[in-house]
UniProtKB/TrEMBL annotation:
This is (Atlantic silverside) hypothetical protein. GO terms for molecular function: cysteine-type deubiquitinase activity. One of its GO terms (biological process) is protein deubiquitination. InterPro entries: Papain-like_cys_pep_sf, Peptidase_C19, Peptidase_C19_UCH, UBL_USP40, USP, USP_CS. Residues 421-431 have a biased composition (Pro residues). It comes from Menidia menidia (Atlantic silverside). GO terms for cellular component: cytosol; nucleus. Residues 714-731, 1236-1250, 1260-1269 have a biased composition (Basic and acidic residues). Residues 1-40, 419-465, 714-744, 1236-1269 are annotated as: Disordered.
Length: 1281
């Protein structure tokens, strides 16, 4: 009954539905208008689909609707007076009138039944309970009858739905007739055992029931038991006939309810004359036509209702279903051309462009949330997860982040664009759009249409499924004859009930004026809400950049200092570009000349211009303008006399221009704000190095033009950082070395930066020929090596007296440069920095330590001061922070930790422990540091997404063995350490029946039985019982328990099993002489294969039962080798020779022919002489295996051979295969005497259950699923007598 109870869940649809409250701005979105059908649905309160279906049927029963509307306030009262003490207000009919008026006249997609259910006396939880619509039909009619007592509508239900049945009993001896009349509002007809409605009515009203034999009738006239015949006839037919189908039945054998899903047909027009008592009247009085079918989808314990309804008054706009619309060749060609034109504009790499185009191409301008992912895949050939999820996240989050573009409508079931305004140029609306936007309050003129088109419309049938209303054809009703989704209630009306012409296409027909006024007021309010919502949803915030505040530098527009060049403007994007231009003109009073509006984007190099808005008649939405779009306002040609290049091909690139640096130029360059390469020279000692300067260049500029812009001669070389030299460059930075650069060849001088794939932040080294005279730069082929001496480098040390939790003044931070080399110890660097900063160790004994900063400014773990700069991995010409704390030694680890949950940024605690300490020792140290006690704690690591991950299982392992590195974060989690990956397995062993006999007859003791578990018989010979793995083996005997890791192999498990005391006498040279079975319900289920396969891969769980078997020869079964028990039938008898084990290799061929060939080779017989069958021990039956695969004509596709490993045989280890030799045995029946006895036992058990025995009843109660208690349905009605 719930809307999506039987719907399949979609990965992407669920995420969309869960974000419906976040995509749409605000929570007061107005209800959407009516759909293309112009009919109104009803909202589902959670489980009220049964109520919605019945209400829609009553609404589209015009006679019922008009009779209800004819009752005025003078009879029913007014809802405004319902709280008055002595006022008799008939609330249920009044609320039903209001609901019908809203469904007919208010322009909304769906109406609410909350007021109506409140008048029923239902609470909020009643709206979520599931009920039967047939039960509701009777209770609602009863409530209406009680509510309308004393009014002109007191006989409403009786006049429209009341009928009479005459039950007659005729005495076969005296002919006396005894009759009894029975009233009905609906006929309950049987479904079980009949195939159609006519058959069910025939059984009810035509066939007679005879009272004879032991079931005689006492005749009042004869005054004795006599033979009689009972029959029933329809005496009075109502104008509207309701048929309730008995789809739900009870199985007394299984003690559970079930739903009849077999085919049950019913006609669109039915003649009830054969079932009536009097047939002298005209035929039209007996003819009915179908106008409503309530459908139930689901089972007997839950489901969903919806209704097919014929629109008698043609109030809705019927359109052929989409799947039935087959366009002509010309239409298809035009449509394909339009689609190709639209698709040419789609940028497959831009999800925003793809989704907006996809939604815009829909006829309704909306897409169902559940179908958005599928439509996207149909459009671009890839799903969202494969195409966009890595870069843009889930589709729901993407729509949420673009809430200015998308919104959810139709109660969150559809996604639409925030606005889709019509073009300023007036165009005739599409017929579908006319239907979509029609106003139900205006009297529409009936459209002129020929009879043929009207006949093709399927007589105005609609599917009303809660809020959704769609058109269907009459032929669709046949789909509801059978299945889990099938007809449940049928509503017929007499064919002589004709509607007046005034009622056609007129929803206001006979609606009271006060209800029309109420609907008009609600429509006005809804229109105002929609206009306000549309204005809010279509208002975009634009960022205007004025040309007077920018200058063109380095290929991009740079803002002029001390000027506010960006202005925010809120504007309705449904308006044309011309209106925006006029608005900006009015804002800029002193603007002279032309004004161009160009879409701009802020890039690292500066502001760049793209597309200029030239068509003033196009709306901002059509022009692709969204919230936070940047627009550049200029004359369209130049900025301060410089021509500006626009377009994506001219996007500026911000490059780091690197030049050789000489020490004597340091002061001058530093005054100019020049940055210096962190892998280059030293400034303190005026040594040689590299200097960096960020410069922007137009992406369409050639490399030669870049060289000219830098003022370099043509002989200069331009180099790019060598991609393969990353490791060497890092090594150089760590304390002296070299970095590699690749020289651009002369041909690249004519290529643009875009063609060379240069990106923002790439480095460009500029060298003059004389630069190679020094020892710093060396040219080897096309690679330049930059070497800088390590003794002329430095480290900057910044003093930070407070770490966290304390405010820090700017003047407390002090910086100092310390000369350093790659071989200098970090303790010397710290000591020099302390001397320069004039710091002393705190009196409390605390120390200072050196720490690095990451790119986000977070402090990294302290560096080990016993190491040199190079050994510690510290890059020269970087900054170290001197702060309070101890530095770890070379044998120690500095760890962050938190208690209870994943750490927040800056909230971790830290500790220093030895690398060789165990996990337990580290945990105790952390607990002591935070003052916690107890043993219910354990350590966990963080996973890749910085969340609490897997626990450290082995507390006795050293941290270094677990590869815990310096600076790693651990979490102290509460609770005992989860159990390790060990399995506790129960080991069993089955006895051979012969040895069981010996054991019982001679020893009568369990000790003898255990001795016979070994592998030696009385004469010392080894045996391998063929009965051992049979399904008919006696009860197994437990031999012990084994505890083993799930990472152990099967060979390890077999070795450990053989160490059990009960198996000490088993002699197995290798593990191959032992076979292990997994048991299910005391039966052997499968053989464990693969000596080196881990128990985890074998999917063994703790508590599993295993059965051990000793073998005479070594065995290593493959994955497709099946161990079968084969039994040859004894000729002329219903029994078999003792079974044997056979290994059948089905890896290459698993067909019946392969098995038959294998058995023929085993017995030395011809394959054609063998007849095979599989034993079903649970049913005590045999399933014969066909001889050969069916021959297929060569012209047809080759049929795939039948596999015995699949349906219907599913051969597996231990299955019993019966074999008949047809050369000597003519009996083709595999059944034995034991099978017949077993079948009789099954029949006896079934008979006991059928009789409802106490044992069967208790078993059935145990098997029954626990279900929610059924709540009785009721409607509270006031007293009006």
């Amino acid at each position: 009954m719930f809307g999506n109870l039987f719907e399949e869940e979609g990965d992407e649809g669920s995420s969309l539905a869960s974000t419906k409250g976040r995509i749409v701005k605000g929570g007061d979105e107005p209800p959407p208008p009516r759909g293309r059908s112009s009919l109104c649905g009803i909202k589902n309160q959670g489980g009220t689909c049964y109520l919605n279906s019945l209400l829609q049927t009553l609404l589209f029963t015009p006679e019922f609707r008009e009779e209800l509307f004819s009752l005025g306030p003078e009879e029913l009262g007014r809802l405004e007076d319902k709280d008055e003490p002595e006022a008799k207000v008939r609330v249920i009919p009044l609320e039903l009138q209001r609901l019908f008026a809203r469904l007919l006249l208010v322009d909304q997609q769906s109406a609410s039944t909350a007021d109506l259910t409140d008048s029923f006396g239902w609470n909020s939880s009643e709206g979520t309970n599931q009920h039967d619509v047939q039960e509701l039909n009777r209770i609602l009619f009863s409530a209406l009858e009680h509510s309308l007592v004393g009014t002109n509508g007191s006989t409403l239900i009786q006049r429209l739905y009341h009928g009479t049945i005459v039950n007659s009993i005729v005495c076969k001896e005296c002919g006396n007739v005894s009759q009894r009349q029975e009233d009905f509002l609906d006929l309950t007809v049987c479904v079980c055992g009949v195939s159609s409605l006519e058959d069910a009515l025939w059984n009810m009203f035509v066939e007679e029931e005879l009272f004879e034999g032991n079931n005689l009738y006492r005749c009042a006239h004869c005054d004795r038991l006599v033979t009689a015949a009972k029959s029933a006839k329809l005496k009075k037919l109502p104008p509207f006939m309701t048929m309730s189908l008995l789809r739900f039945s009870f199985d007394f054998a299984k003690f559970e309810r079930y739903k009849e899903t077999g085919r049950y047909s019913f006609p669109l027009t039915i003649d009830l004359r054969p079932f009536c008592e009097q047939t002298d009247e005209e035929g039209s009085d007996f003819t009915y036509e179908l106008f409503s079918v309530i459908i139930h989808k689901g089972g007997c314990y839950g489901g969903h209702y919806h209704v097919y309804i014929k629109d008698i008054d043609e109030l809705g706009q019927w359109e052929p279903p989409e799947e039935d619309c087959k366009p002509t060749t010309l239409t298809t060609k035009v449509k394909e051309e339009v689609m190709e034109a639209c698709e040419s504009k789609i940028q497959d790499d831009d999800p925003l462009s793809v989704l907006t185009t996809l939604i815009a191409q829909e006829a309704s301008k909306t897409v169902l949330v559940d179908q958005l992912g599928q439509k996207l895949m149909d459009k671009i050939g890839l799903s969202w997860n494969k195409k966009f999820r890595k870069h843009y996240g889930q589709i729901g989050k993407f729509l949420q982040s673009h809430s200015d573009v998308f919104m959810l409508v139709s109660n969150g079931t559809r996604v639409a664009l925030k606005a889709n305004p019509p073009s300023p140029v007036a165009e005739p609306p599409h017929p579908a759009e006319q239907a979509f936007n029609c106003d139900p309050l205006t009297d529409p003129e009936p459209p002129s249409e020929n009879p043929k088109s009207k006949a093709e419309q399927g007589s105005h049938w609609f599917d009303l499924n809660d809020s959704n209303v769609t058109s269907i054809r009459e032929s669709d009703i046949e789909k509801q004859f059978q299945g889990k989704e099938s007809a449940y209630m049928l509503f017929y009306r007499k064919t002589q009930l004709h509607r007046p012409c005034e009622a056609l296409n007129n929803p206001q027909y006979k609606v009271p004026s006060h209800l029309i006024q109420m609907a008009q007021e609600e429509n006005i309010s809804l229109q105002q809400m929609r206009e306000k919502s549309e204005a809010t949803n279509n208002t975009v915030e634009l960022r205007l950049h004025l040309a007077s505040s920018y200058r063109l530098e380095n290929g991009a527009l740079q803002p002029i200092k001390e000027s506010n060049g960006c202005i925010s403007l809120n504007f309705d994007r449904r308006k044309p570009v011309g209106d925006l231009r006029i608005t900006i003109y009015q804002m800029q009073e002193f603007w002279e000349g032309d004004m161009a509006l160009t879409v701009a984007k802020s890039l690292p190099a500066g502001l760049h211009l793209y597309k200029t808005l030239t068509d003033d008649s196009v709306s901002l939405y059509s022009a692709g303008i969204y919230t936070n779009t940047e627009l550049f306002v200029w004359n369209g040609r130049e900025v301060f006399g410089k021509t500006v290049q626009t377009g994506a091909e001219w996007e500026p690139v911000l490059l780091n221009v690197v030049r050789p640096f000489l020490g004597e130029d340091a002061d001058r360059e530093m005054e100019n704000g020049m940055d210096f390469d962190k892998s280059g020279g030293d400034f303190e000692n005026r040594g040689p190095g590299l200097k960096r300067e960020a410069r922007g260049f137009a992406g369409g500029s050639t490399l030669g033009q870049v060289r000219e812009a830098l003022g370099e001669p043509k002989e200069s070389l331009l180099c790019q950082e060598h991609k393969g030299g990353k490791g060497r460059e890092q090594e150089a930075g760590e304390g002296g070395g070299a970095s590699g650069w690749r020289v651009f060849p002369p041909d690249d001088m004519q290529r643009t930066l875009k063609e060379l794939s240069l990106k923002d932040g790439d480095a460009l080294l500029v060298l003059e020929p004389q630069s190679f005279d020094s020892s710093v730069f060396k040219l080897n082929g096309d690679v330049v090596t930059v070497t800088t001496p390590s003794d002329c480098r430095w480290l900057q040390v910044e003093f930070r007296p407070h770490l966290k939790g304390e405010e820090e003044k700017e003047d407390e931070r002090k910086k100092v440069k310390v000369p350093a080399t790659g071989n200098m110890l970090l303790c010397e660097v710290k000591q020099r920095a302390k001397e320069e900063l004039q710091l002393q160790d705190p009196p409390s004994g605390a120390q200072f330590c050196l720490r690095q900063l990451d790119c986000t400014g977070k402090l990294l773990p302290p560096v080990c001061e016993e190491l040199s700069v190079r050994e510690a991995g510290v890059r020269l010409m970087t900054t170290l922070t001197l702060c309070p704390g101890n530095s770890p030694k070379a044998s120690q680890l500095f760890l962050f930790f938190t208690v209870g949950s994943a750490p927040s940024a800056g909230m971790e605690m830290d500790i220093i422990v030895e690398k060789n300490c165990t996990v337990k020792e580290c945990l105790n140290a952390m607990l002591n540091a935070v003052g916690l006690e107890g043993t219910c704690w354990h350590l966990r690591r963080l996973d890749w997404c910085e969340e609490v991950g897997e626990p450290l299982m082995d507390e006795d392992v050293c941290l270094s063995e677990l590869k815990i590195v310096n600076g790693e974060t651990l979490v102290v989690a509460e609770g005992l350490l989860p159990p390790k990956g060990f399995l506790k397995l129960s080991i069993w062993m089955c006895l051979d029946p012969k040895h069981m006999e010996t054991s019982v007859n001679h020893t009568h003791s369990s000790s003898a039985g255990q001795q016979n578990l070994g592998v030696e018989s009385s004469d010392g010979a080894h045996f391998q019982s063929p009965h051992f793995c049979s399904r008919n083996t006696p009860e197994p005997i437990s031999v012990g328990l084994v505890e083993i890791s799930d990472e152990a192999t099967l060979e390890d498990l077999k070795t450990q099993v053989l160490t059990l005391p009960a198996l000490q006498d088993v002699c197995a040279p290798t593990s191959g002489f032992v076979r292990l079975w997994q048991m299910e319900g005391q039966r052997l289920a499968r053989i464990l294969r693969g000596p080196q396969v881990t128990l985890r891969k074998l999917k063994l769980s703790s508590g599993a039962d295993l059965c051990v078997q000793h073998l005479q020869k070594e065995e290593d079964l493959g994955a497709k080798q099946v161990l079968l028990n084969i039994k040859m039938g004894i000729p002329g008898e219903k029994s078999y020779y003792p079974s044997e084990e056979l290994v059948w290799d089905a890896s290459h061929d698993s067909s019946p022919r392969s098995l038959r060939t294998c058995l023929a080779a085993h017995y030395g017989l011809s394959p054609d002489s063998l007849l095979l069958a599989k034993h079903q021990p649970e049913k005590h039956t045999w399933e014969e295996i066909s001889n050969w695969t069916q021959q297929v004509s060569k012209k047809k596709k080759k049929k795939k051979a039948e596999s015995l490993l699949g349906a219907p045989f599913h051969l597996k280890d231990g299955d019993i295969i019966g074999v008949k030799n047809l050369l000597v045995d003519n009996n083709r029946d595999f059944i034995t005497m034991e099978d017949k006895q077993g079948q009789q036992r099954l029949r006896d058990q079934a008979e006991q259950r059928r009789k409802g025995g106490q044992t069967a009843a208790s078993d059935g109660a145990e098997r029954a699923k626990s279900r929610k208690a059924e709540v009785p349905l009721s409607i509270s009605v006031g007293v009006f007598r």
